[in-house]
Amino acid sequence: MLPLSSTVHCDTQVNSSFAGSALKTVRNAVATPESELRRWRRVFDANAKAVVNGEKYLDPENFVNAIAPRGDLSKIGRAQFAILFRVADTSRRGLVSWDDFTVFETMLKRPDADYWIAFQYFDVDNSGTISLDEFKNVFTANVSSSAIPFDFDCDWVKLYLGKKNGTRVLGYNEFTQLMKGLQGERVRQAFQYLDTDQDGFIKPDQFKQIILEIAGHKLSDAVVERLPTLCTLTPGGRISYSEVVAFHNVVREMDMVERIIREATAKSKDGRIDQSDFLNHASISSRYSLFTPMEASIIFHFAGRGSAERRLALVDFAQLLDPRWKAPHEEPEVKSVSTGMSFLNGFLQSAYNFVQGGFAGAFGATIVYPIDMVKNQRSTVVGQMLYKNSLDCARKIFRNEGFVGFYRGLGPQLIGVAPEKAIKLTVNDFVRGRAMDPETGRIKLIWELIAGGTAGGCQVVFTNPLEIVKIRLQVQGETARVEGAAPKGAAHIVRQLGILGLYRGASACLLRDIPFSAIYFPVYSHLKKDVFHEGYNGKQLGFLETLGSAAIAGMPAAYLTTPADVVKTRLQVEARKGQSHYKGLTDAFVKIYQEEGFKALFKGGPARIVRSSPQFGFTLLAYEYLHKLLPYPWEDKPPQVQTALTSRQDDISRIRARNALKILLDVHGDFGRRAARFTPPFVPAVSEKQA
């Protein structure tokens, strides 16, 4: 077995010259932006510990720290990134200089960086081609002696080989295609090697051995442990070649499997899918069928833990999609403690939401209060016209009372709106949380309507007294000026109305707020999920998307409940001479319809939209951001499936470094774990300085 640093070709001097000139050309030709250079320099200086003749260098360990992804969602060991050290160490000194590091980082910017780096690793003598001997030496040097043997003289390998100076070699393009199909050929050869009686079947433990060698790093421990159960899909207790190939195809196309599962579960009404849903969505997601029925059965067999017929949620597929998935610990003592604390935890979470809802409601009400002030003014009193329209009303309020006039009665409004919105948001979240599927995070539409309606009904009990006081404070300003009467305070209005009077118009208030919330919260939720795709591949809504969802949801809710709002306002406003008196809810509806027509029931509808839409927009925006910035520490959230497909924490160079390593790991799952023995030592003395 030849070491990786040995020279296979006889034209060593020519090849060394070729490598040196090529390296110089790359360094001179690549124009790297200064910002990237500063970032690379910062990473290099932070990790370079070895110093030789006053210059910093990266040794293998610190090189791994510089290029390995942080929090990588795979089973690739950090030590295996040392494989890439030999590619970066072009001078074979055992250390990577600053110039070497910039060349390596520039190499990672290539769109084909993963295959390019793999080619560099196999091209031991830097000749620009890979001989069959080089390929064999690198392959066997990184695979243990106990691995299933691979026949390099097979016809499949020879199809990719050309000739250079009488030696069979691989060019770069041929190498990329060979590496892409290498696992498939290894599966074929491994099956033939283990199928000693040539009957087309192998034992379950032999199937597990094959998969561990070619794809063990791509599977979670739970899936690896259940690999032998593949034999239960068909009678006989053994595994056929077609089943081995089908499983390998699933692993090879795991990114596409994940995309299809995420999209199909997102579009499903209950957040769950079966094999038919998977195959149907796969058919409409591509031009040709990507997966066979056998492959779909394998996916659902391992995701369903042997129950392939039931409908599965995204969280059920996590063990198949996430190589680092771990089974949750089900300890009886922990579970009993959790059950005992669930009531207290739920109470504390509701109290926490109540406080945040109060601040959010006060914020939204303050922004739109001037609109509310103008809307609640009567245009006439005792046959005298006070305001021609809303703009005229705003001008006269500003002229007579100044800017402060727009916020007359804001104090009682804030005292009322804070608990009003707090109750509404807290009750809605509470009911939705109890009705939500704990695995999918989905809630049925009927429960969305019930949650919203219950929230709207609960708020009326507390807010109706405060709202009637607010309205009477708002309308008395201009009429008091016309009639020459002094404005009355909130305490006087409360004494005048009494306990029962404070709930005047409560039936109309219920008739308005229950359907309003029943419309608003489901529309808001579906706008976020179905229009702006919140949660899809880990997406979080931005400022404008959240504000837009909350504001748009308020439009139909506000307009469709306008008749109830008109009746409520008429019942709560103190009638004066020349104005109609209403005995109750039904009487008010009838008199308004008879005296003013059907349109009067929707009078102020546009203004109500103008007020309610931005108010709820800013209220929900504040509520959502309070949840993000100050989340409840012990909140029970639906389980999230985080994989390399949804993780975007690392920069593109670290991601490409990981992908380059994955190409090499396709040779063998343990590729690189013994890479240290092939890194030649650096001869000059090295002094270590800690950063």
From TrEMBL:
Give the GO molecular function terms.
calcium ion binding; L-aspartate transmembrane transporter activity; L-glutamate transmembrane transporter activity
Listed GO CC annotations: mitochondrial inner membrane
One BP term from GO: malate-aspartate shuttle
**Membrane-topology descriptor:** Multi-pass membrane protein
Highest rank taxon of the organism: Eukaryota
Q: Which keywords, in A-to-Z order, does the entry hold?
A: Calcium, Membrane, Mitochondrion, Mitochondrion inner membrane, Repeat, Transmembrane, Transmembrane helix, Transport
EF-hand domain location is 110-145, 182-217
Q: Where are the Solcar repeats?
A: 348-434, 443-530, 541-629
Q: Where in the cell is it found?
A: Mitochondrion inner membrane
Q: Which SMART domains match?
A: EFh (SM00054)
The record's listing under InterPro entries reads: EF-hand-dom_pair (IPR011992), EF_Hand_1_Ca_BS (IPR018247), EF_hand_dom (IPR002048), MCP (IPR002067), MCP_dom_sf (IPR023395), MCP_transmembrane (IPR018108), Mito_Solute_Carrier (IPR051028)
Which function does this protein serve?
A: Calcium-dependent mitochondrial aspartate and glutamate carrier. Transport of glutamate in mitochondria is required for mitochondrial transamination reactions and ornithine synthesis. Plays also a role in malate-aspartate NADH shuttle, which is critical for growth on acetate and fatty acids.
Q: Subunit info? A: Homodimer (via N-terminus).
Q: What family does the entry list?
A: Belongs to the mitochondrial carrier (TC 2.A.29) family.
Q: What is this protein called?
A: Mitochondrial aspartate-glutamate transporter AGC1
